[in-house]
């Protein structure tokens, strides 16, 4: 059998279908340049043979074998090998029916995407069938000794001892032993596994079953014994109950008769007690009447005593207050006396310390008064003399007198002014001289004052430029404070609402890591909220001052509130459901928050699995309104729950329909009941009323008040409204703060400027004050003051001089007139005039001196006057206080007298009250004794009544006991007929019914215990345990015998493995020695004067591996590293040829074994191959791949001249590179010349 033809299609570099062949039956050589695809033909053969190591065909995966990995439009690679077979060949290894076939085709096809299939003679075959076919031909592609691939020559040199030993094993055929040994080991493992299974069945099933059945059999036997014991004790208990019931009947009849006798006695005693009680009541009534007659005066006395005590307390308080006021007055009088003494002493000290000028002024004042009086007297005499009784003359004289007086006054005033002017001028000259010396200091200070005034004017201009922003800032601040107060109110309400929600509805959810937050929606009451017209406004709205809005379709807030609570009742706990997107999120959140361990029940609603029930649409709503006789648009009678809420239609419509879609709110229970329980089930929906009645379509009806229902949706609405309002107010606050900020900056700037202005003004005042208080300033101020006074005095002097001249002219005129009229009175008038004039001159001088002294002593006089006035005021105050003390003392004496009178009156009332109380106490004692008698009689009667009731109860109980005992006897006899036959044995010694030997209580306890044991065993007792136990024991014996058989089989297999190991050792030793001889002979032919051999790594153990040794002229080398590349290739090639010579294969494939050799070595290889061909040519098919033509020359017979002879000798197939690149492969035979 040999390869006749090779067909490649889409394999590696062969894009289209290429046929290589027909090939020579014995030897074929494939030559060509590098990259022409020689090795791809070898890879195609390996691909069909089923190679499993893809690296040997230079790919990472099978899909890489397709032309350009399928990127050129070719998606599959197909390789077909056609084999020629000789049916008449002896020892043909092929299995039937292939042994009889002359041509066999094997195809392997790989398709992009992972599909791989085999065709055997155009029929799809399994991989195992193909492998078995090649193994029959001794072609194991995964351990090939018949194929030398490209580069394997160099790999052989680097093989480890174990790998070299593997080549020997392959040649010796011990791989078959290894396969059989591996199969045997697998068989042993299977036997071991079988034993483990049997042992597992025995230990886990059979033996526990046997033990369990044994226990169940014992339990069943115990169960039977317990039932027998229970039957015995139950008969004993029944007999005891029957015996006791009969005894109870007999004893009860006697006791009942005794109770009737005692009852008759008690009835007689009760009648006597009633008579005694009536007598005691009559006596008590008489005493109470007498006591009531005497209690009226006693009450009056007590009332008078209370009034007297009140008046006495009031008088005592007034007396204490009056005494306290008197003490305070005494203290104030003493203090005022001290004050008067202090003032007198101060006045005396002030008077004694007055200066001499004051005394002189007083004397001078007295002198002025004396002169005035004398002048007045002389004037009157002169007037009298001058008038002489003449009216007209007297009038002139009066005018003259007046004029002269005025002239004298003006003269005195002129003199005084002249003195003052003289004094002021002298003072002005002194101040001017002083001011000249201080001129420089004053200039500096005046410049400083001027600069400060300029600074003040500048600051005022800046303040005016900034403007007055106080009013605007104040308005904004007040608005801001109001908004902040509103925000606090909103935040407080939101916090209160959230706390209420957390107490019963709100559930805090913690999302697991890795969960998308969009998969968590929240609770239903957060997703669906009440519409604004159905929500009562919160406290925050009241704070904000917004008016309340009424619902559109409801009359009054109370109706809206009731309907809203009805919605809460109808929806129920669904509002607290947590909505998530799917089940996975639900499980993750439930586990993350550990809801299973929490106290509150938590329900998660996955939207993906949420099933929405029937939803009441608009048509169904109108139909139900018509059903109850309402207009279709009447919202006050029937309303959908869904119409009361608002939600995100796109995202939460499913949640809203799930919770609210199938519910209706009705005005009355009759309407609700009619809608829910109507015959048309399609229009029947759950309903609720404002009173809290709920009607479900399943027939459930509930009722009750809804006033205490927790309104989750309203509370959430309150929270949302408050939170939203708080946020809105916060936005407005931020806007106002933004508006206020520049105003505050301007205000701060203005405040800074005003502060600077105040400082500047204060500094200016200080500077001016300093200027005024300095010497220069004082001089300047005094000079200005003196100049002003001097100007005023000069003006006044000029005015006085004018008036004086006018007065003198008037006097001269009058005197002339008088002289003309009275020429005879000249002497007297002259004398009087002279005297008057002298007095006037003297008076004028005295008044001038007095005026000077008065100027000096005016301050002292004022002080004395003030002190005198204070002293007089203090004396007056002291006198008034002393008068008040006298009045207060009189008032206190009157209070003491009144208090004494009240005390005596109280003593009389107390004495009379004591007398009346003694008599009342005696009567009260009599009344108490009568009441005690009545109580004692009533108590005795009550005791007898209780005793009678107890007797009646005892009689009824006894009667019930008798009836029950008779009934028990009857029932026991009807239920247990054996009682009549066994009754003589009851309570008899030595019988099973000896109630003294076995206590009935013990028997009952034993019955209870037995019942508990039987009940416990009844659950687990197995009546067929015995039968099952026998069956299971039989199965146990069968398994034990099977276990022994498996153990015997395992031992036999182990013996076979040991035998295989021994045969392998012998065969491996023989093959090693043959290969070693061939290896030495071939290497010496390839490389003359060189020797080679295969030696054991461990002389005692061949299985440790083999290594190659080489010698030149019989001098052995320690290492192969000293060899050249060609020598190493020859060494490896020698080993491979030695292996092939020991065990010839049906096919030999050599790929570029001459790659590293020169011409002389390749000729030696040719001779070796020629020798080998002569030995194998009749049986073997060879193919060689090389890029050199010359090595093929030695393989072709040079003496064959004709083409037919050359063809018989061999053929060389060359693949030109240009043909390969063109996509075509041409096969031709050529000989080397």
Automatic annotation (TrEMBL):
<keyword id="KW-0539">Nucleus</keyword>
<protein>
    <recommendedName>
        <fullName>Structural maintenance of chromosomes protein</fullName>
    </recommendedName>
</protein>
<feature type="coiled-coil region">
    <location>
        <begin position="750"/>
        <end position="944"/>
    </location>
</feature>
<feature type="coiled-coil region">
    <location>
        <begin position="256"/>
        <end position="388"/>
    </location>
</feature>
<dbReference type="InterPro" id="IPR027417">
    <property type="entry name" value="P-loop_NTPase"/>
</dbReference>
<dbReference type="Pfam" id="PF06470">
    <property type="entry name" value="SMC_hinge"/>
</dbReference>
<feature type="coiled-coil region">
    <location>
        <begin position="442"/>
        <end position="500"/>
    </location>
</feature>
<dbReference type="GO" id="GO:0051301">
    <property type="term" value="P:cell division"/>
</dbReference>
<keyword id="KW-0067">ATP-binding</keyword>
<dbReference type="GO" id="GO:0030261">
    <property type="term" value="P:chromosome condensation"/>
</dbReference>
<dbReference type="InterPro" id="IPR010935">
    <property type="entry name" value="SMC_hinge"/>
</dbReference>
<dbReference type="GO" id="GO:0005634">
    <property type="term" value="C:nucleus"/>
</dbReference>
<keyword id="KW-0498">Mitosis</keyword>
<comment type="similarity">
    <text>Belongs to the SMC family. SMC2 subfamily.</text>
</comment>
<dbReference type="InterPro" id="IPR027120">
    <property type="entry name" value="Smc2_ABC"/>
</dbReference>
<keyword id="KW-0175">Coiled coil</keyword>
<keyword id="KW-0226">DNA condensation</keyword>
<keyword id="KW-0132">Cell division</keyword>
<dbReference type="Pfam" id="PF02463">
    <property type="entry name" value="SMC_N"/>
</dbReference>
<dbReference type="GO" id="GO:0005694">
    <property type="term" value="C:chromosome"/>
</dbReference>
<keyword id="KW-0131">Cell cycle</keyword>
<dbReference type="InterPro" id="IPR036277">
    <property type="entry name" value="SMC_hinge_sf"/>
</dbReference>
<feature type="coiled-coil region">
    <location>
        <begin position="1000"/>
        <end position="1063"/>
    </location>
</feature>
<keyword id="KW-0547">Nucleotide-binding</keyword>
<dbReference type="GO" id="GO:0005524">
    <property type="term" value="F:ATP binding"/>
</dbReference>
<dbReference type="InterPro" id="IPR003395">
    <property type="entry name" value="RecF/RecN/SMC_N"/>
</dbReference>
<dbReference type="GO" id="GO:0016887">
    <property type="term" value="F:ATP hydrolysis activity"/>
</dbReference>
<dbReference type="InterPro" id="IPR024704">
    <property type="entry name" value="SMC"/>
</dbReference>
<feature type="domain" description="SMC hinge">
    <location>
        <begin position="547"/>
        <end position="676"/>
    </location>
</feature>
């Amino acid at each position: 059998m040999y390869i006749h033809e090779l067909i490649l299609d889409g394999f590696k570099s062969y894009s289209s279908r290429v046929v290589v062949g027909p090939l020579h039956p014995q030897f074929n050589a494939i030559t060509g340049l590098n990259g022409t695809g020689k090795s791809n033909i070898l890879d195609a053969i390996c691909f069909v043979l089923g190679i499993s190591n893809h690296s040997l065909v230079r790919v990472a995966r099978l899909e890489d074998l397709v032309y350009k990995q399928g990127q050129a439009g070719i998606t599959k690679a197909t390789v077909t090998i056609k084999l020629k077979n000789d049916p008449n060949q002896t020892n043909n290894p092929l299995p039937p029916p292939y042994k009889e076939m002359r041509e066999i085709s094997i195809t392997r096809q790989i398709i992009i995407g992972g599909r791989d299939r085999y065709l055997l003679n155009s029929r799809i075959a399994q991989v195992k069938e193909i492998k078995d076919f090649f193994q029959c031909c001794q072609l194991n592609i995964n351990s090939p000794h018949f194929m030398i691939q490209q580069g394997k020559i160099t790999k052989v040199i680097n093989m480890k001892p174990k790998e070299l030993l593997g080549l020997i094993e392959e040649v010796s055929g011990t791989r078959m032993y290894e396969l059989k040994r591996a199969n045997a080991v697998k068989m042993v493992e299977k036997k071991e596994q079988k034993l483990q299974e049997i042992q597992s069945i025995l230990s886990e099933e059979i033996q526990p079953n046997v033990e369990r059945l044994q226990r169940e059999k014992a339990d069943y036997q115990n169960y039977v014994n317990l039932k027998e014991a229970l039957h015995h004790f139950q008969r004993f208990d029944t007999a005891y109950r029957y015996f006791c019931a009969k005894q109870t009947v007999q004893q009860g009849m006697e006791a009942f008769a005794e109770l009737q006798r005692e009852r008759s006695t008690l009835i007689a005693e009760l009648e006597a007690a009633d008579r005694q009680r009536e007598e005691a009541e009559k006596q008590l009534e008489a005493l109470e009447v007498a006591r009531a007659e005497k209690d009226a005066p006693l009450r009056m006395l007590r009332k008078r005593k209370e009034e007297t005590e009140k008046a006495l307390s009031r008088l005592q308080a007034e007396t204490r207050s009056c005494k306290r006021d008197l003490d305070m007055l005494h203290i104030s009088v003493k203090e005022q006396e001290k004050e008067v003494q202090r003032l007198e002493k101060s006045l005396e000290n002030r008077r004694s310390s007055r200066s001499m000028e004051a005394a002189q002024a007083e004397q001078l004042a007295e002198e002025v008064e004396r002169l005035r009086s004398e002048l007045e007297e002389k004037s009157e005499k002169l007037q009298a003399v001058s008038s002489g009784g003449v009216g007209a003359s007297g009038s002139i004289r009066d005018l003259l007198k007046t004029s002269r007086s005025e002239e004298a006054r003006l003269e005195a005033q002129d003199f005084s002014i002249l003195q003052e002017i003289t004094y002021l001028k002298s003072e002005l000259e002194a101040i001017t001289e002083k001011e000249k010396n201080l001129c420089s200091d004053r200039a500096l200070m005046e410049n400083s004052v001027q600069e400060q005034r300029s600074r003040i004017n500048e600051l005022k201009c800046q303040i005016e430029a900034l403007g007055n922003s106080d009013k605007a800032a104040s308005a904004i601040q007040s608005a801001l404070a109001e908004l902040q107060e509103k925000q606090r109110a909103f935040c407080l309400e939101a916090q209160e609402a959230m706390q209420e929600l957390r107490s019963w509805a709100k559930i805090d959810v913690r999302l697991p890591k890795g969960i998308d937050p969009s998969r968590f929606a929240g609770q239903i009451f957060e997703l669906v909220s009440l519409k604004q017209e159905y929500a009562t406004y919160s406290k925050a709205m009241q704070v904000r001052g917004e008016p309340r809005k009424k619902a559109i379709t409801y009359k009054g807030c109370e109706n809206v509130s009731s309907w809203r609570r009805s919605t809460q009742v109808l929806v129920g706990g669904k509002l607290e459901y947590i909505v998530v997107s799917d089940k996975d999120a639900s499980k993750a959140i439930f586990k993350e928050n550990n809801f299973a361990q929490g106290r509150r029940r938590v329900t998660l609603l996955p939207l993906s699995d949420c099933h929405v029930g029937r939803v009441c649409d608009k048509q169904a709503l109108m139909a139900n309104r018509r059903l109850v006789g309402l207009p279709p648009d009447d919202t006050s009678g029937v309303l959908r729950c869904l119409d009361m809420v608002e939600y995100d239609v796109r995202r939460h419509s499913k949640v809203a329909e799930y919770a609210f879609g199938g519910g209706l709110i009705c005005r009355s229970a009759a309407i609700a009941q009619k809608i829910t329980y109507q015959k048309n089930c399609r229009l029947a929906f759950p309903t609720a009323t404002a009173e809290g009645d709920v009607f479900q379509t399943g027939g459930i009806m509930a009722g009750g008040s809804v006033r205490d229902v927790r309104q989750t949706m309203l509370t959430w609405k309150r929270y949302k409204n408050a939170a939203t309002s708080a946020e809105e107010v916060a936005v407005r606050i931020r806007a106002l703060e933004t508006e206020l900020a520049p105003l505050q900056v301007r205000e701060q700037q203005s405040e800074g400027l005003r502060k600077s202005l105040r400082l500047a003004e204060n500094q200016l005042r200080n500077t001016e004050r300093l200027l005024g208080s300095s010497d220069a300033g004082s001089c300047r101020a005094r000079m200005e003051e003196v100049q002003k006074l001097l100007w005023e005095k000069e003006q006044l002097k000029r005015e006085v001089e004018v008036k004086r001249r006018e007065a003198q002219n008037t006097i001269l005129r009058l005197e002339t007139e008088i002289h003309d009229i009275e020429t005879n009175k000249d002497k007297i008038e002259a004398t009087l005039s002279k005297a008057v004039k002298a007095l006037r001159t003297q008076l004028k001088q005295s008044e001038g001196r007095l005026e000077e002294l008065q100027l000096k002593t005016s301050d002292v006089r004022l002080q004395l006057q003030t002190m005198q006035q204070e002293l007089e005021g203090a004396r007056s105050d002291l006198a008034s206080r002393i008068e008040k003390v006298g009045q207060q003392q009189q008032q206190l004496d009157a209070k003491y007298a009144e208090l004494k009178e009240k005390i005596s009156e109280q003593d009389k009332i107390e004495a009379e009250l004591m007398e009346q109380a003694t008599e009342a106490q005696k009567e009260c004692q009599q009344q108490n004794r009568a009441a005690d008698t009545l109580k004692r009689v009533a108590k005795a009667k009550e005791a007898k009544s209780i005793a009678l009731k107890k007797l009646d109860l005892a009689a009824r109980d006894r009667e019930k006991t008798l009836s029950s005992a008779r009934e028990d006897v009857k029932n026991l006899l009807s239920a247990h007929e054996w009682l009549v036959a066994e009754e003589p044995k009851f309570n008899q010694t030595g019988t099973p019914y000896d109630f003294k030997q076995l206590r009935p209580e013990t028997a009952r306890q034993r019955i209870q215990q037995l019942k508990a044991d039987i009940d416990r065993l009844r659950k687990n007792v197995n009546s067929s345990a015995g039968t099952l136990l026998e069956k299971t024991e039989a199965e146990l014996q069968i398994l034990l015998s099977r276990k022994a058989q498996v153990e015997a089989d395992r031992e036999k297999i182990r013996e076979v493995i040991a035998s295989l190991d021994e045969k392998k050792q012998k065969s491996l030793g023989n093959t090693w020695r043959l290969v070693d001889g061939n290896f030495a002979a071939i290497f010496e032919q390839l490389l003359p004067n060189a020797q080679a051999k295969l030696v054991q790594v461990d002389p005692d153990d061949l299985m440790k591996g083999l290594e190659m040794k080489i010698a030149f002229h019989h001098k052995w080398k320690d290492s192969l590293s000293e060899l050249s590349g060609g020598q190493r290739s020859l060494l490896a090639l020698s080993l491979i040829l030695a292996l092939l010579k020991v065990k010839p294969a049906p096919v030999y494939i050599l790929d570029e074994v001459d790659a590293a050799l020169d011409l002389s070595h390749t000729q030696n290889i040719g001779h070796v191959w020629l020798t080998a061909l002569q030995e194998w040519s009749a049986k073997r098919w060879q193919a060689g791949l090389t890029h050199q033509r010359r090595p093929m020359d030695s393989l072709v017979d040079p003496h064959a001249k004709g083409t037919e002879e050359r063809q018989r000798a061999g053929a060389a197939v060359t693949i030109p590179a240009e043909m390969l690149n063109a996509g075509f492969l041409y096969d031709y035979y050529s000989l080397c010349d």
